[in-house]
DNA sequence: AACTGGGTCAACCGCCCATAC
DNA sequence: TGTATGGGCGGTTGACCCAGT
């Protein structure tokens, strides 16, 4: 049932309450009349100064309530309906970067509100974690997302693209996350964009090679973080010509099978030395380290993105493919990967 | 038909920060 | 510098829906 219908159901109830407390601020569900007042007032005078706006508009609401109603429900560009796989994928990606920074995440999902994303995370993602009896934010949870849910969503996106594109073509335009301008604003002043999320062409065969088969995932993975292999190209750099397919090709050629190591801090959180020792050295770029669900951001020395939006996004996304590539599940999480494979792979999108 | 338990999501709460004075 | 106010944010609540019994 839509919120409007729900609101209508409450209308009589609220009206009665309003009569009782006519001099007090109203609370609870908004009526159509209130919505209309707010919409028309903002259309004439614009947003902001919410307390004053509430009074001027003749609403018996406090400013915060008006602001919330407008931003989460009435604003014209609010997108309705279920989150698409692309959007779900985006949320997983961005949450891995920023944690529960819902408003920040919402900025990169046009038409979606922080409240909606927060609800999605709590009702879908955390629910799945509970059902699997794993703590959301735990390492097992991270592995589950990386090894199963994300590839599953990527596959869904891929299937959608196949439907859109000619079935005869062998190369798919992986533009899922920019197709509806999700990231256009992110890299607005630069031609560079997220390796994982950018509009990038890649070969279907390579896609299949990096989407782990859940049933073989745990057995084929090294039990810890991996150093970049010795033959990893030292001149590899993220720049405008960077293509996701490059990494996919590398993944099949130089997937490290030894020199595994990991570090663990006092809190049992894993730090990723790759960022400090290798990626920084190789690519001379800013480490964003944390990136992983539930990690202590102080311990991980998470730096808030700098100055411009473009810079911020480049800095934060650049590491992503390496995270997915090198940050292999640990031995302790192998149980999860093995035991959860069937459950997760058969699971509908979050 | 009535009840129940779980899921969803709009709305609220409380805290924090920035700004004005 | 201290205080008041506005606004933003993440966490939580509770009304409602719906499927199962």
Task: Give a written overview of the molecule.
This protein has helices at residues 3-20, 32-45, 50-56, 63-74, 85-98, 102-106, 114-131, 139-164, 204-210, 214-220, 244-253, 273-283, 309-317, 320-326, 331-345; strands at 171-174, 200-203, 263-264, 270-271. It is mainly alpha-helical. The protein folds into 2 domains: 3-74, Homeodomain-like (Arc Repressor Mutant, subunit A), CATH 1.10.10.60; 85-345, no CATH class. A hairpin with a 5-residue loop joins strand 3 (263-264) and strand 4. Helix 5 (85-98) packs antiparallel against helix 8 and helix 8 packs parallel to helix 15. The longest helix is centred in the middle third of the chain and has 26 residues, at 139-164. It is elongated and about 55 Å long. 31% of the residues are buried.
What's the short version?
With 350 residues, the protein is mainly alpha-helical. The chain has helices at residues 3-20, 32-45, 50-56, 63-74, 85-98, 102-106, 114-131, 139-164, 204-210, 214-220, 244-253, 273-283, 309-317, 320-326, 331-345; strands at 171-174, 200-203, 263-264, 270-271.
Features:
350 residues, mainly alpha, Arc Repressor Mutant, subunit A, 2 domains, two-stranded antiparallel ribbon, two-stranded antiparallel sheet, 15 helices, 3% strand, disordered N terminus, disordered C terminus, DNA-binding, MYB transcription factor, transcription regulation
Give the helix/strand layout.
Blueprint: H1 3-20, H2 32-45, H3 50-56, H4 63-74, H5 85-98, H6 102-106, H7 114-131, H8 139-164, E1 171-174, E2 200-203, H9 204-210, H10 214-220, H11 244-253, E3 263-264, E4 270-271, H12 273-283, H13 309-317, H14 320-326, H15 331-345
Antiparallel strand pairs: 1-2, 3-4
Helix pairs in contact: 3-4, 5-8, 8-15, 9-11, 10-15
The protein binds a DNA duplex (21 and 21 nucleotides) through helix 1, helix 3, helix 4 and helix 7.
